[in-house]
Amino acid sequence: MADLSINIAGVNFKNPIITASGTFGFGKEYNDFYDIDKLGGISCSAVTLEKRPGNPPPRIAETPAGMLNSVGLQNPGVKSFIKDDLPWLKKQDLVVIANIAGSTYEDYSESVELVSSSDVDMVELNISCPNVKEGGVAFGTNCQSVELITKTVRKVCKKPLIVKLSPNVTDISEIAKAAEAAGADAISLINTLTGMQIDIETKRPLLKNNVGGLSGPAVFPVALRMVWQVANSVKLPVIGMGGISTWQDAVQMFLAGASAIQVGTANFLDVYAPLKIIDGLGAYLNDKGHANIKDIIGKVEVWQ
Ligand SMILES: Cc1cc2nc3c(=O)[nH]c(=O)nc-3n(C[C@H](O)[C@H](O)[C@H](O)COP(=O)(O)O)c2cc1C
Hints:
By secondary structure, the chain is of the alpha/beta class. It has helices spanning 78-90, 105-116, 137-140, 143-156, 172-181, 220-231, 247-256, 266-269, 273-288; strands at 6-8, 11-13, 17-19, 41-43, 60-63, 66-69, 95-100, 122-126, 161-164, 186-189, 193-195, 198-199, 204-205, 212-215, 238-240, 260-263. The protein has one domain (6-55, 70-197, 217-295): TIM Barrel (Alpha-Beta Barrel). The protein contains nine helices and 16 strands. Helix 2 (105-116) packs parallel to helix 4 (143-156), helix 4 packs parallel to helix 5 and helix 7 (247-256) packs across helix 9 (273-288). The chain starts with 5 loop residues before the first strand and ends in a 16-residue tail after the last helix. The structure holds flavin mononucleotide. The site of flavin mononucleotide has 25 residues, from loops.
């Protein structure tokens, strides 16, 4: 069998499949379906310094080949995560990534300091949540603020730092370079694309928040293009996500330059999607005669 293990910023993953933040909770519910230690890692739902109730419903809507959400960072707060959720997760054999969101430089910094002093393996800085006014997206949409927020948390972060980028920008490569220059250890992308749907009978938006984040297969080609651009712009490892539902999507992400991938919305349609992706990826590598996942990373042969 091909070797699927990878190392990102000094952290070993048994395979490069990670579940995406906000789509897998803190792992416990999914463990009723399968042993989550079959996964390479879990990116936990975002936590903020204080607990948040999230946005009022309706906050989920189906779209052609995707979904809109405006959950808005409902979470128990960073201290409760460390005390109540992390101990169980750390008993599972997978990489635990804490996803941190915030509203100000100070609360990002305080949350990252707290969480990176705990047992988590890595920290993912969510500067890309489009669903709340103060959900961090303001930090993620221009190079200066990306650089400043990354620098600010880098100073207090005791674990490898992944910066998660928003696709709601003009030039994703420049944003990635800003995060790299400020000390990020890895880049992950994409978060959701801002979208909207209107009920033509009531003439009201489907989401109470009016707009939300689009995810699922509909965003895959955009995500793939952005991962490819970023992988060709920075030296850091890139974790690709956005609409990955099948092992064929995953293979495309690796060819585009991702060193690992995250699976999000697909978990809602098929609870076993990440496991099917792990199996399919291994079979593809065997079939093509590759002994190692690294043999295909960034190996897309672009037309000249
Ligand atoms: C319901 C829902 C909640 C999400 N919550 C978070 C979150 O808490 N933190 C975060 O960084 N991304 C969050 N995301 C974004 C996903 O992690 C991922 O970046 C995005 O959905 C694209 O991947 P996908 O198409 O595979 O879902 C959320 C997405 C969905 C659908």
